[in-house]
Amino acid sequence: MLISAVALTIFAVIGTAIVSSTDWLTRDRIKANEIAARLKQINEIMPRQLYDNDLLHDTLTLPAGAITDRYPTTVYRARLAGKSVAVIMQTTAPSGYSGPIKLLVGILSDGTLNGVRVLKHKETPGLGDKIELRKDKWILSFNGKSLHNPEKDLWKVKKDGGAFDQFTGATISPRAVTQAVRDSLIYFEAHRQALFDLTPLPVSTIEVQETKQ
After folding, report:
1. How far is CA 202 from CA 83, 103, 190, in A?
2. CA 14 – CA 213 distance, rounded (Å)
3. For 14-69, what is each residue's pLDDT tens digit?
4. How many angstroms separate the CA atoms of 158 and 32, rounded?
5. Which of these, 63, 60, 73, 141, lies nearest to 102 by C-alpha position?
6. Side-chain-side CA neighbours of residue 197 (13 Å)
7. pLDDT tens per residue across span 91-117
8. pTM for the whole thing?
């Protein structure tokens, strides 16, 4: 009986160790896959030859209210030979037709958009989901634009008197994305230096509100 009890204990310890090791390896693999996927998404709008820093570790987080009312924004800073090249904002358009739309917005140091991509959404298939590049080229219409090209008051869909197309039967989705990109550009213009600083000062609620007005 004693031998059996000892054997069971040994097997239990070994089993626990195997499960723990497997769990650790799985978590490690998932994390590595997530990092690779995020880099691939970023490199679609900010090609690797434009920066040489460890972009995923050169980041800062803007609090909810800085760009969108309910969601924080992660900012990746791209640098080349120590010089600031661009920021990639992982932000959220809160007013999609079926919920929030997560975006990557790539802004060069001169304020020009290098690209925008949709990361996650629940928009209507065949209508609002055309905000995805794999469904439609609409998202490419932001390339090369800036807060002054078109002018700030034209950063709306055409149905609202702006410069950007909407989709047939779907206005809310492109409207939400266009507004989120515009808000990102407004924030960038107001806080350009702080976004690139290695030790940026925190942005106060007052500054955030003034930026949005």
Report:
1. 22, 23, 14
2. 62
3. 656 565 556 555 766 776 676 778 889 899 999 999 999 998 999 999 999 999 88
4. 42
5. 73
6. 11
7. 999 999 999 999 999 999 999 999 999
8. 0.80
